[in-house]
Protein backbone atom coordinates (compact mmCIF):
# COMPACT_ATOMS: atom_id res chain seq x y z
CA UNK A 1 0.00 0.00 0.00
CA UNK A 2 1.01 3.66 -0.25
CA UNK A 3 0.55 6.88 1.72
CA UNK A 4 2.37 5.82 4.88
CA UNK A 5 2.78 7.95 7.98
CA UNK A 6 6.27 7.82 9.49
CA UNK A 7 5.99 7.19 13.22
CA UNK A 8 9.47 7.14 14.80
CA UNK A 9 10.87 5.62 11.62
CA UNK A 10 8.14 3.03 11.04
CA UNK A 11 5.85 3.64 8.09
CA UNK A 12 2.24 2.91 9.06
CA UNK A 13 -0.29 2.63 6.25
CA UNK A 14 -3.06 5.21 6.21
CA UNK A 15 -5.82 2.63 5.87
CA UNK A 16 -9.13 1.57 7.33
CA UNK A 17 -10.10 -1.96 8.30
CA UNK A 18 -12.10 -2.29 5.08
CA UNK A 19 -9.39 -0.96 2.77
CA UNK A 20 -6.76 -3.16 4.43
CA UNK A 21 -9.00 -6.21 4.00
CA UNK A 22 -9.68 -5.34 0.36
CA UNK A 23 -5.95 -5.07 -0.25
CA UNK A 24 -5.26 -8.50 1.25
CA UNK A 25 -8.10 -10.20 -0.60
CA UNK A 26 -6.81 -8.82 -3.90
CA UNK A 27 -3.24 -9.79 -2.94
CA UNK A 28 -4.21 -13.45 -2.96
CA UNK A 29 -4.61 -13.19 -6.74
CA UNK A 30 -1.15 -11.72 -7.33
CA UNK A 31 2.33 -13.20 -7.58
CA UNK A 32 4.73 -13.25 -4.63
CA UNK A 33 4.25 -13.01 -0.88
CA UNK A 34 2.37 -10.16 0.76
CA UNK A 35 3.72 -9.57 4.27
CA UNK A 36 1.53 -8.01 6.96
CA UNK A 37 2.77 -6.47 10.20
CA UNK A 38 0.55 -4.92 12.85
CA UNK A 39 2.72 -2.86 15.22
CA UNK A 40 1.50 -1.38 18.47
CA UNK A 41 3.28 1.26 20.58
CA UNK A 42 5.64 -1.28 22.14
CA UNK A 43 6.70 -2.66 18.76
CA UNK A 44 7.31 0.77 17.23
CA UNK A 45 9.34 1.82 20.27
CA UNK A 46 11.43 -1.34 19.87
CA UNK A 47 11.95 -0.53 16.19
CA UNK A 48 12.97 3.03 17.10
CA UNK A 49 15.79 1.57 19.22
CA UNK A 50 16.70 -1.20 16.74
CA UNK A 51 17.28 0.09 13.18
CA UNK A 52 17.63 -3.37 11.61
CA UNK A 53 14.23 -4.38 12.95
CA UNK A 54 12.79 -1.06 11.79
CA UNK A 55 13.97 -1.83 8.26
CA UNK A 56 12.30 -5.24 8.42
CA UNK A 57 8.99 -3.68 9.41
CA UNK A 58 9.22 -1.13 6.61
CA UNK A 59 9.70 -3.88 4.05
CA UNK A 60 6.22 -5.11 4.94
CA UNK A 61 3.59 -4.94 2.21
CA UNK A 62 0.99 -3.75 4.73
CA UNK A 63 1.66 -2.15 8.12
CA UNK A 64 -1.36 -1.31 10.25
CA UNK A 65 -1.87 0.49 13.56
CA UNK A 66 -2.62 -2.34 15.96
CA UNK A 67 -2.68 -0.22 19.12
CA UNK A 68 -4.75 2.84 19.94
CA UNK A 69 -1.50 4.46 21.06
CA UNK A 70 -0.30 4.44 17.45
CA UNK A 71 -3.48 6.23 16.37
CA UNK A 72 -3.00 8.83 19.11
CA UNK A 73 0.60 9.27 17.97
CA UNK A 74 -0.59 10.03 14.45
CA UNK A 75 -2.82 12.79 15.85
CA UNK A 76 0.10 14.26 17.77
CA UNK A 77 2.02 14.34 14.49
CA UNK A 78 -0.85 16.15 12.78
CA UNK A 79 -1.63 13.37 10.27
CA UNK A 80 -4.34 11.35 12.00
CA UNK A 81 -4.77 7.75 10.90
CA UNK A 82 -8.45 6.97 10.24
CA UNK A 83 -8.77 4.15 12.78
CA UNK A 84 -7.08 1.34 14.65
CA UNK A 85 -6.61 -1.78 12.52
CA UNK A 86 -5.67 -4.50 15.00
CA UNK A 87 -4.07 -7.73 13.86
CA UNK A 88 -6.73 -9.96 15.40
CA UNK A 89 -9.62 -8.00 13.90
CA UNK A 90 -7.93 -7.78 10.50
CA UNK A 91 -7.31 -11.54 10.57
CA UNK A 92 -10.99 -12.13 11.33
CA UNK A 93 -12.10 -9.80 8.53
CA UNK A 94 -9.80 -11.53 6.10
CA UNK A 95 -11.15 -14.94 7.11
CA UNK A 96 -14.71 -13.66 6.81
CA UNK A 97 -14.05 -12.52 3.24
CA UNK A 98 -11.96 -15.56 2.32
CA UNK A 99 -14.28 -18.30 3.62
CA UNK A 100 -16.87 -18.01 0.82
CA UNK A 101 -14.00 -18.19 -1.68
CA UNK A 102 -12.73 -21.47 -0.24
CA UNK A 103 -9.28 -20.06 0.55
CA UNK A 104 -6.73 -22.12 2.47
CA UNK A 105 -5.09 -21.26 5.80
CA UNK A 106 -2.02 -22.42 7.73
CA UNK A 107 -1.54 -21.70 11.44
CA UNK A 108 1.99 -21.37 12.78
CA UNK A 109 2.81 -20.45 16.38
CA UNK A 110 1.65 -20.71 19.96
CA UNK A 111 2.25 -23.43 22.53
CA UNK A 112 1.80 -27.09 21.55
CA UNK A 113 -1.88 -27.82 21.00
CA UNK A 114 -2.98 -24.18 20.71
CA UNK A 115 -2.94 -24.07 16.90
CA UNK A 116 -5.14 -27.18 16.77
CA UNK A 117 -7.68 -25.59 19.14
CA UNK A 118 -7.57 -22.36 17.16
CA UNK A 119 -8.20 -24.30 13.94
CA UNK A 120 -11.37 -25.85 15.37
CA UNK A 121 -12.70 -22.48 16.53
CA UNK A 122 -11.84 -20.73 13.27
CA UNK A 123 -13.65 -23.34 11.19
CA UNK A 124 -16.72 -23.05 13.44
CA UNK A 125 -16.74 -19.25 13.07
CA UNK A 126 -15.78 -19.12 9.39
CA UNK A 127 -17.19 -22.21 7.64
CA UNK A 128 -15.58 -22.59 4.25
CA UNK A 129 -12.04 -21.84 5.36
CA UNK A 130 -9.85 -24.83 4.55
CA UNK A 131 -7.12 -25.18 7.19
CA UNK A 132 -4.40 -27.18 5.50
CA UNK A 133 -1.81 -27.28 8.28
CA UNK A 134 -0.80 -26.27 11.80
CA UNK A 135 2.45 -26.10 13.71
CA UNK A 136 3.35 -24.81 17.16
CA UNK A 137 5.93 -22.07 17.67
CA UNK A 138 8.53 -24.20 19.47
CA UNK A 139 11.19 -25.34 17.06
CA UNK A 140 14.90 -25.81 16.51
CA UNK A 141 16.72 -25.49 13.19
CA UNK A 142 15.82 -29.03 12.12
CA UNK A 143 12.14 -28.72 12.96
CA UNK A 144 12.04 -25.34 11.25
CA UNK A 145 13.09 -26.99 7.99
CA UNK A 146 10.20 -29.43 8.36
CA UNK A 147 7.74 -26.59 9.02
CA UNK A 148 8.94 -24.64 5.99
CA UNK A 149 8.73 -27.73 3.79
CA UNK A 150 5.18 -28.39 5.03
CA UNK A 151 4.09 -24.81 4.33
CA UNK A 152 5.58 -24.93 0.84
CA UNK A 153 3.93 -28.27 0.14
CA UNK A 154 0.51 -27.03 1.30
CA UNK A 155 0.90 -23.62 -0.44
CA UNK A 156 -1.74 -21.89 1.71
CA UNK A 157 -3.41 -18.70 0.57
CA UNK A 158 -3.01 -17.30 4.10
CA UNK A 159 -0.34 -17.98 6.70
CA UNK A 160 -0.76 -16.73 10.27
CA UNK A 161 2.64 -16.44 11.96
CA UNK A 162 2.18 -16.06 15.71
CA UNK A 163 5.63 -16.09 17.27
CA UNK A 164 5.48 -12.73 19.05
CA UNK A 165 7.53 -9.71 18.10
CA UNK A 166 10.24 -9.26 16.95
CA UNK A 167 10.63 -12.93 16.05
CA UNK A 168 7.59 -13.23 13.80
CA UNK A 169 8.41 -10.21 11.63
CA UNK A 170 12.04 -11.32 11.31
CA UNK A 171 10.90 -14.83 10.40
CA UNK A 172 8.52 -13.67 7.69
CA UNK A 173 11.10 -11.29 6.25
CA UNK A 174 13.73 -14.05 6.16
CA UNK A 175 11.34 -16.43 4.35
CA UNK A 176 9.82 -14.23 1.67
CA UNK A 177 10.19 -17.08 -0.82
CA UNK A 178 7.58 -19.16 1.00
CA UNK A 179 4.81 -20.55 -1.18
CA UNK A 180 1.99 -18.57 0.40
CA UNK A 181 0.14 -15.48 -0.73
CA UNK A 182 -0.43 -13.56 2.52
CA UNK A 183 1.76 -13.97 5.61
CA UNK A 184 0.51 -12.13 8.70
CA UNK A 185 2.46 -11.62 11.91
CA UNK A 186 -0.28 -11.43 14.54
CA UNK A 187 1.34 -12.25 17.88
CA UNK A 188 -0.92 -13.91 20.44
CA UNK A 189 -3.96 -14.12 18.18
CA UNK A 190 -3.89 -17.91 18.10
CA UNK A 191 -4.38 -17.93 21.87
CA UNK A 192 -7.45 -15.73 21.42
CA UNK A 193 -8.84 -17.85 18.58
CA UNK A 194 -8.26 -20.97 20.70
CA UNK A 195 -10.04 -19.45 23.70
CA UNK A 196 -6.89 -19.62 25.83
CA UNK A 197 -6.95 -15.82 26.24
CA UNK A 198 -10.07 -13.67 26.29
CA UNK A 199 -10.23 -10.33 24.52
CA UNK A 200 -11.31 -7.26 26.40
CA UNK A 201 -15.06 -6.56 26.41
CA UNK A 202 -16.29 -4.41 23.52
CA UNK A 203 -16.54 -1.35 25.79
CA UNK A 204 -12.80 -1.47 26.52
CA UNK A 205 -12.00 -2.04 22.83
CA UNK A 206 -14.05 0.92 21.62
CA UNK A 207 -12.73 3.18 24.38
CA UNK A 208 -9.15 2.35 23.45
CA UNK A 209 -8.60 0.74 26.86
CA UNK A 210 -7.88 -2.83 25.82
CA UNK A 211 -4.37 -2.43 27.23
CA UNK A 212 -5.87 -1.46 30.62
CA UNK A 213 -8.10 -4.54 30.63
CA UNK A 214 -5.10 -6.77 29.92
CA UNK A 215 -3.19 -5.10 32.75
CA UNK A 216 -6.05 -5.78 35.16
CA UNK A 217 -6.15 -9.42 34.12
CA UNK A 218 -2.37 -9.80 34.00
CA UNK A 219 -0.66 -7.43 36.48
CA UNK A 220 2.65 -9.04 35.54
CA UNK A 221 2.43 -7.05 32.28
CA UNK A 222 3.08 -3.82 34.21
CA UNK A 223 6.73 -3.54 33.15
CA UNK A 224 5.79 -4.04 29.49
CA UNK A 225 3.04 -1.43 29.81
CA UNK A 226 5.66 1.18 30.71
CA UNK A 227 6.40 1.24 26.99
CA UNK A 228 3.14 3.16 26.45
CA UNK A 229 4.12 6.42 28.23
CA UNK A 230 7.69 6.09 26.89
CA UNK A 231 6.30 5.78 23.38
CA UNK A 232 4.04 8.81 23.82
CA UNK A 233 6.85 11.00 25.13
CA UNK A 234 9.21 9.87 22.40
CA UNK A 235 6.66 10.75 19.73
CA UNK A 236 5.98 14.11 21.39
CA UNK A 237 9.63 15.14 21.57
CA UNK A 238 11.16 13.35 18.59
CA UNK A 239 8.33 12.34 16.25
CA UNK A 240 8.27 15.43 14.02
CA UNK A 241 11.84 14.94 12.80
CA UNK A 242 10.80 11.73 11.02
CA UNK A 243 8.15 13.49 8.93
CA UNK A 244 9.03 14.52 5.40
Instruction: Quickly count the helices.
Output: 13
Helix amount, in percent? Answer: 40-55%
Widest sheet, order of strands: 4-3-8-7-5-6
Instruction: Indicate the structural class.
Output: alpha/beta
Largest sheet: 6 strands, parallel
Could you say how many structural domains there are in total? 1
Report the count of strand segments.
8
Low-confidence stretches: none
* Binned strand content: 5-15%
Shape: globular
N-to-C order of helices and strands: EEHEHHEHHEHEHEHEHHHHH
Q: From the alpha-carbon coordinates, what is the Rg to the nearest angstrom? A: 17 Å
Short description:
The chain is of the alpha/beta class and 244 residues long.
Entry keywords:
244 residues, alpha/beta, six-stranded parallel β-sheet, two-stranded antiparallel ribbon, 13 helices, globular
Provide an overview of this structure.
By secondary structure, this protein is an alpha/beta fold. The chain has one domain (4-242). Helix content is 48%, strand content 14%. It is built from 13 helices and eight strands. It has helices at 17-27, 41-49, 51-58, 68-76, 87-98, 114-125, 141-154, 167-174, 189-194, 202-206, 210-217, 222-225, 227-238, and strands at 4-7, 10-13, 34-37, 62-63, 104-109, 130-135, 158-162, 182-185. The strands form two sheets. A six-stranded parallel sheet has the order 4-3-8-7-5-6, sandwiched between helices. Strand 1 and strand 2 (10-13) form a beta hairpin. The protein is globular and about 50 Å long. The mean pLDDT is 91.
Amino acid sequence: MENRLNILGVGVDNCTMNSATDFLVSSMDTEGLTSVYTPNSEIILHAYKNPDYCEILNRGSLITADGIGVVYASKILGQALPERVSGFDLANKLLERSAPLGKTLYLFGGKPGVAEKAAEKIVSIHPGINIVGVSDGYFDAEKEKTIIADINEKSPDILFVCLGFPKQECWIDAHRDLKTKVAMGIGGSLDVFAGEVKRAPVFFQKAGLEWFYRLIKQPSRFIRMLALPKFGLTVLFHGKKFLK
